[in-house]
């Protein structure tokens, strides 16, 4: 057991903070279609259960590409919320 005081690692499917957005993947909805990987390859990968997970390079992705990845998901498993307004950006 480690005794370090580092920040806890978020769950692999979020929620994570990317810019002023809170983003997460609903693992119950995710079917592993991998369209998110094709649209936002710096943000997403699939784990060994074929569920979308966040990459360490997620902060390098353009916000437009992240939103496009959420819109491309066939089951709307990627949820984006604006931290400033506390309103859901996608899906509405």
Structure, described:
A hairpin with a 5-residue loop joins strand 3 and strand 4. The chain is globular. The protein is α+β, with helices and mostly antiparallel strands and 92 residues long. The chain is 16% helix and 24% strand. It has a 4-stranded antiparallel sheet with strand order 1-2-5-6, covered by helices on one side. Strands 3-4 form a two-stranded antiparallel ribbon. The protein has one domain: 2-Layer Sandwich (Alpha-Beta Plaits), CATH 3.30.70. The N and C termini lie far apart (42 Å).
Which descriptors apply to this entry?
4-stranded antiparallel beta sheet; alpha+beta; Alpha-Beta Plaits; 24% strand; 92 residues; two-stranded antiparallel ribbon; 16% helix
Low-confidence stretches: none
**CATH first level:** Alpha Beta
The geometry reads as globular
- The value of Rg in angstroms is 13 Å
Question: Domains counted in the coordinates: how many?
Answer: 1
The total of helices stands at 2
What's the average pLDDT?
92
| SSE run | EEHEEHEE
Oligomer: single chain
Termini separation comes to 42 Å
- Give the helix proportion (percent range): 10-25%
């Amino acid at each position: 057991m480690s005794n370090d005081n580092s920040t806890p690692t978020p769950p692999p499917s979020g929620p994570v903070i990317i810019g002023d957005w809170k983003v997460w993947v609903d693992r119950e909805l995710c079917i592993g279609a991998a369209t998110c990987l094709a649209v936002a390859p710096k943000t997403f990968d699939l784990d060994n259960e074929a569920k979308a997970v966040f990459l360490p390079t997620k902060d390098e992705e353009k916000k437009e590409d992240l939103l496009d990845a959420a819109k491309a998901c066939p089951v709307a498993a990627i949820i984006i919320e604006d931290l400033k307004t506390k309103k859901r950006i996608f899906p509405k």
